[in-house]
Write a structure and sequence with these properties.
This protein is α+β, with helices and mostly antiparallel strands. 48% of the residues lie in helices and 22% in strands. The protein has one domain. The chain contains two helices and four strands, in the order αββββα. A two-stranded antiparallel ribbon has the order 1-2. Helix 1 (2-11) runs antiparallel to helix 2. It is elongated and about 75 Å long. The model has no long low-confidence stretch (mean pLDDT 84).
């Protein structure tokens, strides 16, 4: 969603009271046409149901910061999931050795990490 807003803000220069025609989702993918009289300031969803009124420049800065935070969070979750997967594999190997079983059968699934 931030990508779409960023593209719109980057594409449309801030020019005072610019009129904007758009579609608004009322829920369940039911869209209605809407006209915005003054699009020089926009409301941006900042999280937890809160919206903040910002200028185009403020919104662009916020989107850059938010996307970098989300990217860092995604990378950390990927690292954490790889560690958990390695720990599970180690426990399974330990159980296999304790039970005296042969090697684990090769899974036909493709590893994501």
């Amino acid at each position: 969603i931030f990508d779409i807003l960023y593209y719109y803000l980057w594409k449309s220069p801030e020019s005072g009271s610019q009129q904007l025609k758009t579609e608004v989702d009322l829920g369940c993918n039911f869209y209605v046409q809407a006209e915005v009289e003054d699009s020089s300031r926009i409301f941006v969803a900042v999280g937890y149901g809160f919206f903040v009124e910002m200028t185009h420049d403020e919104a662009l800065k916020f989107i850059d910061k938010k996307t970098s935070q989300l990217t860092a969070f995604t990378e950390q979750l990927t690292k954490d999931s790889a560690k958990i997967k390695a720990n599970i594999r180690m426990v399974l190997e330990g159980l296999r050795e304790l039970q005296g079983l042969t090697d684990l059968p090769e899974s036909r699934r493709r590893d994501v990490f």
